[in-house]
Write a structure and sequence with these properties.
Layout: H1 2-13, E1 19-24, E2 30-35, H2 36-59, H3 72-98, H4 105-122, H5 137-141, H6 143-164, H7 174-201
Antiparallel strand pairs: 1-2
Helix pairs in contact: 1-2, 1-3, 2-3, 3-4, 4-6, 6-7
Length: about 200
């Protein structure tokens, strides 16, 4: 996947103008410009550095001891999911650049909700670790709270992502409203659930 990301970006590099958009505002309008080298190579570089860091977290002494309980296949799927997200984001950005800078908000929003669906499927299999999951005091202090919160959060992410995915294709400004509201709700509800669960188990 990294080879495809680097190869595709280098292939597109020759077709990019010298000055390309590298940042967009909430209305998908360009508000930052940079060189074509930056646009083509920044995300592949970030993806490579991120992947190496995650390998260190999973295989080296940087990770939590409890993560040793997590199946190697689950760790590998998490790393692949992160690479997939970054690769799709790079494709969306390069496609927007080749079309003159107009970012397809529907593609970006759909990518985010698809990530939630895929990550939600993995959440019940997560063990306490150094980088992935709902990492807050109640879940890190109590493995039972961790497991129940991630089973609940996984279902919530899959259902929420599935219900919100069609909103990416609504006319503006509804996709952005649903994106912000959905991200806040899907982030806060599992946190509230974890604190309430810890209080219930401590009685």
């Amino acid at each position: 996947m990294l080879a495809l990301l680097w190869g595709g970006s280098l292939l597109v590099l020759q077709y990019l103008p010298e000055r390309v958009p590298i940042h967009w505002d909430l209305h998908n309008q360009v508000n930052g410009w940079g060189s074509r080298w930056l646009a083509a190579l920044l995300l592949p570089g970030v993806a490579t550095a991120t992947y190496l860091f995650l390998l260190a977290m999973d295989w080296g002494g940087l990770d939590f001891r409890a993560a040793s309980r997590m199946a190697p296949a689950t760790k590998r799927q998490l790393r692949i999911l992160v690479l997939l997200l970054l690769g799709v984001l790079q494709a969306i950005i390069l496609e927007a650049t080749l079309r003159g800078g107009t970012l397809r908000g529907a593609s970006l929003n759909a990518c985010i909700w698809a990530f939630f669906i895929l990550f939600g499927n993995l959440m019940p299999r997560l063990e306490p670790n150094g980088w992935a999951g709902i990492r807050i005091p109640p879940t890190l202090e109590n493995r039972e709270v961790w497991k129940q919160t991630h089973r609940f959060g996984g279902k919530l992410f899959v259902i929420g992502g599935t219900l919100l995915l069609p909103t990416a294709f609504l006319p503006e400004p509804y996709p952005m409203i649903s994106l912000v509201a959905g991200l806040v709700l899907l982030s806060l509800i599992p946190i509230v659930y974890a604190y309430r669960l810890r209080a219930a188990l401590s009685r």
